[in-house]
Amino acid sequence: MKNSEVKIFITGGLGYIGTALAKEALKRGFDVYLYDSLVYKQNSKKVLREINGKNKNAELKFIKGDTRNIPLLRKSLEKWKPDFLFHFAELVGVYACDYNPKHTRAINFSASKNVLNLATKLNIPTIYNSTSSVYGNQKKAKLLKENDEIPAPTDNYCKNKLLMENHIEKLRKKYPNFKVIVLRPATVWGIGPRMRIELLPNHFTYSAIAKGRIRISEPQAYRAEMDIDDIVESYFAIMGKKSWKKPVYNVGSDNLKKIEVAEKIKSFIPCEIETIGNIGDMRNLQIDSTNFRNDFDWKPKNTFEGTIQKVAAWIKKNKKEMESTKFKGILNSPLHIWQKMI
Ligand SMILES: NC(=O)c1ccc[n+]([C@@H]2O[C@H](COP(=O)([O-])OP(=O)(O)OC[C@H]3O[C@@H](n4cnc5c(N)ncnc54)[C@H](O)[C@@H]3O)[C@@H](O)[C@H]2O)c1
After folding, report:
1. What is the pLDDT of residue 321?
2. pTM for this predicted structure
3. Per-residue model confidence (pLDDT) at position 123
4. Is the CB of 20 under 6 A from ligand 1?
5. Which residue has a Cα nearest atom 43 of ligand 1?
6. Which atom of ligand 1 is nearest to the CA of 69?
7. Which of 248, 217, 76 is nearest to 148 (CA)?
8. Which ranges in 215-326 belong to alpha helices (H)?
9. What was the pLDDT predicted at 100?
């Protein structure tokens, strides 16, 4: 989809997925407004420069704002009048959310609920990222469909995502004209303007390069994965369709056991694979993205092997900087915290 008339608004726009979407949208001539409270102390000037590139055709705006500040968000949305709202501003990841349950609920449920309520009032078509992790700990290995039963949430990240999915379902029933879609994306990995290195395949690649060793808990547990460029492409597919047939869609490319992820990485970067005991991450899931593929004429373009090579090259180039500044909070964490992130 290409359209200089289209305006998008991204909460959490200075995050991993938000920056990648913004960069591609500007390239395609979309006007982009980013709303982010810079939780990770991102260097906004630097990231915005990278997102904007040589773009001269489209408008890029950024405001430092928190989703708990609804008057500011309302003012920004009313002024900008976006055609689409992407709501990404949440605390992300099982470990981060379990570490701080109250704060997680305040951001990922209370504030997100207000963002969606506001989108309803202003009637802005909205894309909400839930997560494939809501499928939690599956006892049987099978590809999960959107209507399959969801077990009790394994952690606070999923618990709040499910609360949001329920809230959106209520809004949809109450306001049938409100256009909204919920995605349950696989773990996203690959390279973006604001890297997240703690995502499983990114993290394994980093460990292989920096430590010569990948540590895995629950090696036989499955995870769904997809390249960041493929999820970005899925958003253009969504914006390009007049109607969004189903309320909730899985979206992903691969379904691999953690040990398979590690072995694939090892085939490019010689390293040891070490299995460690259960560290409390219970997720074990595989997703079926057929509905999304069919309804949005989308399919992933990147291979797992191709993404390993891109990520490895990025890490080799940026390792020093990553370790000294940008990712201090993550990479310099004590081992027990590190372990929880894998
Ligand atoms: N990355 C993945 O693998 C993945 C997979 C499935 C779903 N998701 C979902 O996609 C969305 C984006 O994820 P991401 O990987 O880009 O995460 P991220 O942490 O990189 O981005 C989130 C952004 O939101 C901002 N933010 C957090 N709280 C805020 C608040 N209260 N107000 C304003 N800004 C706030 C942060 O500063 C950050 O820039 C999240 O909802 C996440 O749950 C991510």
Report:
1. 81
2. 0.96
3. 98
4. no
5. 92
6. 32
7. 248
8. 228-239, 258-266, 290-296, 304-321
9. 84
pLDDT along the chain (342 residues), means of 10: 78 97 97 95 92 92 98 98 98 86 96 98 98 94 95 93 98 97 98 91 94 92 97 98 97 98 98 88 93 98 98 94 66 62 57
Atom of ligand 1 nearest to the CA of 111: 31
Decide the pairing of beta strands 60-64 and 31-36: parallel
Buried-exposed string 274-313: b where 16+ CB fall within 10 A, e elsewhere:
eeeeebebbbbbbbbbebbbebbebebebebeebbebbbe
Ligand 1 within 6 A of CB of 268 = no
| 26 CB within 6 A, ligand 1 | no
pLDDT of residue 95: 80
Task: Give strand pairing partners of 272.
Answer: 213
Q: In ligand 1, which atom is closest to the CA atom of 107?
A: 31
C-alpha 195/C-alpha 140 separation (Å) is 33
Tokens of 162: 């499910």
Would you say how long the chain is, in residues?
Answer: 342
Q: Which two tokens stand for residue 315?
A: 């890490």
CA distance 225 to 283: 13
Distance CA 220, CA 228 (A): 24
Please name the fold of domain 7-340.
Rossmann fold (3.40.50)
The 3 state secondary structure assigned to 20-75 is HHHHHHHHCCCEEEEEECCCCCCCHHHHHHHHHCCCCCCCEEEEECCCCCHHHHHH
Locate 157 and state its tokens. 């990240």
pLDDT at position 165 is: 98
Amino acid at 220: Q
Residue that the structure tokens 């989108």 belong to: 119
So what's the pLDDT on residue 324? 74
Place of tokens 């004590």: 334
Domain ranges of the chain: 7-340
Distance CA 290, CA 91 (A): 28
Q: Residue 35 — φ and ψ, nearest 5°?
A: -125, 115
Question: What sign does the CA torsion over 90, 92, 96, 99 have?
Answer: positive
Ligand 1 neighbour 66 (Cβ under 6 A): yes
Question: What is residue 311's predicted lDDT score, i.e. its pLDDT?
Answer: 98
